[in-house]
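Homework help board

Subject: predicted structure for assignment chain

Our instructor gave us this sequence and asked us to write out the predicted structure in token form, then describe one feature. I got the tokens but I'm not sure how to describe them. Can anyone check?
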Amino acid sequence: MQKTQLTLQKITVFGSIVLASLMIVYALGFSTNIFNLMYHSDPDSRLFYVPGAELYLEAQPFNRLLFSHALALFAVCITMFVTLTHRRRLYYISNYITSLAFAGYAVYVGNMMLGKAAEYKGRYLEVDFERLLAVTERFRMNYSDSTFMLDTGMVMSVLLMVFAGLLVVNLVLKTIWMSREKWLDEPAEVR
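My token output:
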């Protein structure tokens, strides 16, 4: 059981750092698919305005917030490496604190991102794409109706929650294994 638990421990902690790194990259590209709406968001422009294009400007505060949370998530994940959570045979209180902090924060960020990505996808699909296509073809602008980045956000949200769960499972298995090892190390007359 110890070997299985140590393997899970490494996979979970290294996977968490990869996921936290990907979150930073994702946060930088969050608005990529809806960027072209920026040129069509001025309701005073009869030539360029497309109903629903305001979404790009409305999504920017969340995009900045997501980037801040992604950086913070990465920093919390680094603390797991500082406390050697990825390779320690016996956990100390610091390993529990850093693992639970990352797990809790990952669930928080994942829930927040899942909700906003679903909301923005729904609103993006309400954009008048016929008008957008007509305007972009007329003025030779870039046209996009892809929701790839918003869909990726939903997948990343689920992955954050899965890794948070794996970290908690790892802590439970580690605790069970450490208590069994302690029980086996005690002399027979003490038991």
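Reply (TA_rk): Your tokens look well-formed. For the description, you could write something like this. The first helix runs from residue 2 to 29. That's the kind of observation they're looking for.
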